[in-house]
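Deliverable D5.2: sample structural annotation.
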Amino acid sequence: MKHAAGWRAPALSAALFLLFLGVWHALTLPTGAQQSVDSEYARLVGAAAAAGQKSAMPGLREVASKIREHLKEPFYDRGPNDKGIGVQLAYSLARVIAGYLLAALVAVPTGFLVGMSPTMYRALDPFIQVLKPISPLAWMPLALFTLKDSSVSAVFVIFICSLWPMLINTAFGVASVRREWLNVARTLEVGPLRTAFRVILPAAAPTIMTGMRISIGIAWLVIVAAEMLVGGTGIGYFVWNEWNNLSLTNILAAILAIGVVGMALDQVLARLTRLVTFPE
């Protein structure tokens, strides 16, 4: 019975996916009358008709063909505006990982400080509450002006958007550690540093990892918009450049790639969270 129940969710996911593909195919499939009109129009005006049809929503077969094309050669580099989708994803991932790790280096120690000290919490909370609601993209003009480099500015934006979920969750996790455990550590005369690593960190780790998981999703979301603004390289720039080329098939292929990579990043953090929560 349990074995059968375990297959229900994957089977339902597969059915919904097939339903989505079927609806997409049906909506982009021209009717018989429209198809004959399009064929006659193409015969009369030739290439002009074909060019005009490029602006229509691409069908399932066109997108599948474009995805196969990208998968055959994902890492080619033929110049500034002609790079494979794998290259563009690599640029975006590098920026996300750099900004994310910098945020973790700042957020986790600061969160510990805020969570362990009520005085530091009251001192830093006004700054956190003011800076947290600001859209990360609002920092982009200031970053471009001061840092003078679009890639570094994108990393800075990822740093800003990744910082707050990790900091807040770390502070909450540290502050929520049971007082009894801390009292036992004091009774045994355990030093503050050892208490932090041997008592507080293991207890707060699941909450910290949840904040890190939230941050990686936000970071991957923001990098696409940031690269649309700064241009140059990255999957966001790829999407914007293909929009300028009116290539909806490439845009849809890129959207799928963004979703798959985002899911992979989330699953990596989810796995780490499970290891912390339920160590094997």
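Annotation notes: The chain is about 80% helix and 0% strand. The longest helix spans residues 192-230.
The annotation will be released with the project's public dataset once the embargo ends.
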